[in-house]
Amino acid sequence: MSATSLPATVPAPVPVSNGPNAIQKLLQDKDWKLYAAVASVSLLAGAGLYFLTRDSSSSPTPEAKSSKSKKKKGNKKKKSSAAKEPTTPEEKTAESSASEKATENKDVDDSNVETMSKETIARLTEKKRLEHANTLKTRGNSMYSAKKWEEAIRLYSQAIAFNPDPVYYSNRAACYSIVGKFDNVIEDTTFALKMNPTYVKALGRRAHAYENTGKHQEAMHDFTALCILDGFKNESFAQSMERNLKKVADVKAKEILKNREERLPSTTFMSAYLDSFRKGDVPETKPEDEETGDAQFQLAEFYLSQRRYQEAMEAYNKAIELNTTHMAQALNMRGTFTFLMGDGKKALVDFDKAIEIDPNYVQTYIKRGSIFMEQGDALKTFNEFETAISIDAEDPNIYYHRGQVFFITGEYEAAAKDYIKSIELEPKFVFSHIQYGVAQYKLGNVSDAMNVFKKALKDFPDSGDVNNYYGELLLDQQQFDQAYESFDKAIKLRPSNPLPYINKALLVFQWKQDPAGAEKLCLQSLDADPECDVAIATLGQLFLQQGKIEKAIEYFEKSIEMARTEAELTSALGFREAANSQLVFARDYPEQSKALKR
């Protein structure tokens, strides 16, 4: 991913900018497997979606003046068109009476407005109805202040009978909210919003009522509208929107996962993780005899070297079924595939069996540590690395992967030490050099970091990865011309790698303000890997940035289809639902939506 996204996964680093742009900020990491795979696979995560759980409910307050009483007192604020025109039969009758200059019926006794019948109210002039309504509203406010909620509800109800003003509905909704009658809150605020769609206080009360009745999707839409109408000034609105967004995404993710079959990640993702381990001898051809367990194991290793991961997984399974003599290694790899498909618990079963068979197979401890890291158990994670070191202190894989753990937990100095150790033990492993450079960059040692990359460019002249991540550092420093050249070179050296295309797309979008060019580059990255989650996520964000919400949703849907774990699925759903909320806002508030576009 880009130089301004968070660091992601094992073989390659992703520098972090102090000021990410909107697209890059929204394309941050998802979960541990990304860290455990490669920084290049920084997928669609909860970037920009921080979910707070503090109680958003607050004691509602009634409003002292109705919309019409404000007009009487010379309020100069512009009212919505919905508020100007009569929207109920009562208002239309009143307006008609006023136009005819009707006089008050002298037979009407208006001494007790609190019990006056609808028939009697209908015989009053508009002026009298407005006066009595305002009197009742004032009495209702007094009862509200005295915490006599039912009395306040009665008085607001009678005020509505005289004049169905949105303020009266909203004030009555405030009382209903306090006594826990949230369905009534929704009904009253909806009436208020029909009369005045931009009535923020009513919208807020309805949003909280939706949340309190478990209607999180509706609450999310209302809180989104509040954020936009308020100009994103109220942090509590944003927090409430995000909280409900998370609940919606969580529920939908669980429903989808009930019937979803496990699937392997994209080739880019798989390669990133598997390339983070030094390779042993790899068979150059397929075995002639494929009937035995050992032959199936050799076949799996061959497919693995060819990046034919689905076939490799199937062959490892057959090797285990046929009792291969390489059982520990086969179980290790089956556990690895299972882990990358998102089932850490099931993967642990294979890793545990592999260790029982061969307690000295270091790689299995490293991978088991990755699962513990994903589960949030740091103690078990580091214990696995210590055990691995006790078995073979000269294995460079241990230090590289432990360095990654330090890196993602922000302990960059410790990470740098492990990367150096990994380099000392195996100088030809390019990702140790890349990650060491990134660690220096994170520590603020920019000059040292750049020197690490310049040396790596000389030592690994044919590495597209070095050029790609060097380009990210340059992009982060806004050295756009040089970054552009680095990404171009990375593409030439390894056209099958989708990541330089994506980085170049972000550069083109940020630097040249060329969304069409950025889109074209992202589509080229999909030619390299049609299931590249990063490219799909980036395209969704590019379209969103351009206001092409329907097109953005199309790509978010693809992200949902490709997501493997609950965390990934929840993240992708969150983006789709957030985009849908913008569509709902555009539908419900067309004028405000047009103004935003201008």
From TrEMBL:
<feature type="repeat" description="TPR">
    <location>
        <begin position="293"/>
        <end position="326"/>
    </location>
</feature>
<feature type="compositionally biased region" description="Basic residues">
    <location>
        <begin position="67"/>
        <end position="81"/>
    </location>
</feature>
<feature type="region of interest" description="Disordered">
    <location>
        <begin position="1"/>
        <end position="21"/>
    </location>
</feature>
<keyword id="KW-1133">Transmembrane helix</keyword>
<keyword id="KW-0472">Membrane</keyword>
<keyword id="KW-0802">TPR repeat</keyword>
<feature type="repeat" description="TPR">
    <location>
        <begin position="328"/>
        <end position="361"/>
    </location>
</feature>
<keyword id="KW-1000">Mitochondrion outer membrane</keyword>
<dbReference type="Pfam" id="PF13181">
    <property type="entry name" value="TPR_8"/>
</dbReference>
<dbReference type="InterPro" id="IPR011990">
    <property type="entry name" value="TPR-like_helical_dom_sf"/>
</dbReference>
<feature type="region of interest" description="Disordered">
    <location>
        <begin position="53"/>
        <end position="116"/>
    </location>
</feature>
<feature type="compositionally biased region" description="Low complexity">
    <location>
        <begin position="53"/>
        <end position="64"/>
    </location>
</feature>
<dbReference type="GO" id="GO:0030943">
    <property type="term" value="F:mitochondrion targeting sequence binding"/>
</dbReference>
<keyword id="KW-0496">Mitochondrion</keyword>
<protein>
    <submittedName>
        <fullName>TOM (Translocase of outer membrane) complex component</fullName>
    </submittedName>
</protein>
<feature type="repeat" description="TPR">
    <location>
        <begin position="133"/>
        <end position="166"/>
    </location>
</feature>
<dbReference type="Pfam" id="PF07719">
    <property type="entry name" value="TPR_2"/>
</dbReference>
<dbReference type="GO" id="GO:0030150">
    <property type="term" value="P:protein import into mitochondrial matrix"/>
</dbReference>
<feature type="repeat" description="TPR">
    <location>
        <begin position="464"/>
        <end position="497"/>
    </location>
</feature>
<feature type="repeat" description="TPR">
    <location>
        <begin position="396"/>
        <end position="429"/>
    </location>
</feature>
<comment type="similarity">
    <text>Belongs to the Tom70 family.</text>
</comment>
<dbReference type="InterPro" id="IPR013105">
    <property type="entry name" value="TPR_2"/>
</dbReference>
<keyword id="KW-0812">Transmembrane</keyword>
<feature type="repeat" description="TPR">
    <location>
        <begin position="533"/>
        <end position="566"/>
    </location>
</feature>
<dbReference type="GO" id="GO:0005741">
    <property type="term" value="C:mitochondrial outer membrane"/>
</dbReference>
<dbReference type="GO" id="GO:0045039">
    <property type="term" value="P:protein insertion into mitochondrial inner membrane"/>
</dbReference>
<keyword id="KW-0677">Repeat</keyword>
<feature type="repeat" description="TPR">
    <location>
        <begin position="362"/>
        <end position="395"/>
    </location>
</feature>
<dbReference type="InterPro" id="IPR019734">
    <property type="entry name" value="TPR_rpt"/>
</dbReference>
<dbReference type="GO" id="GO:0008320">
    <property type="term" value="F:protein transmembrane transporter activity"/>
</dbReference>
<feature type="repeat" description="TPR">
    <location>
        <begin position="430"/>
        <end position="463"/>
    </location>
</feature>
<dbReference type="Pfam" id="PF13432">
    <property type="entry name" value="TPR_16"/>
</dbReference>
